[in-house]
Design a protein that fits this description.
mainly beta, 105 residues, Rieske Iron-sulfur Protein, globular
């Protein structure tokens, strides 16, 4: 898949969980929300918390350090603080999850 990097096997990211992967030297958190996969930049813009270690509730992940929340579908902050993170296109082929090398616009 041109422009995509294999990030994980589907069974490595059960529903309601995440996995942190490296894509083009960037730390990306891949989330499984009821069988649909999403990818966002792993670092919280507030103070650098690891979003991939945060609590996932539906499509929202909360930073484990200060509880700022982001929609994993698009990286938008939902706390009215103006924070957001980059989101990345995800494709599934067979039993593998692929993440796009560039941020979604």
């Amino acid at each position: 898949m041109d422009g995509f990097q294999m990030a994980a096997r589907i069974d490595e990211i059960p529903p309601g969980t995440s996995k942190v992967v490296q894509v083009n030297g960037k730390s990306i958190a891949v989330f499984n929300v009821e069988g649909t996969f999403y990818a966002i930049y792993n670092t919280c813009p507030h103070e650098g918390g690891p979003l991939g270690e945060g609590r996932l509730k539906g499509c929202v992940v909360s930073c484990p350090w200060h509880d700022l929340s982001f929609d994993v579908r698009n990286g938008q902050g939902i706390d009215n603080g103006g924070y957001c993170v980059g989101s990345y296109e995800v494709k599934v082929a067979g039993h593998e999850v692929y993440v796009g090398a560039r941020r979604k616009v």
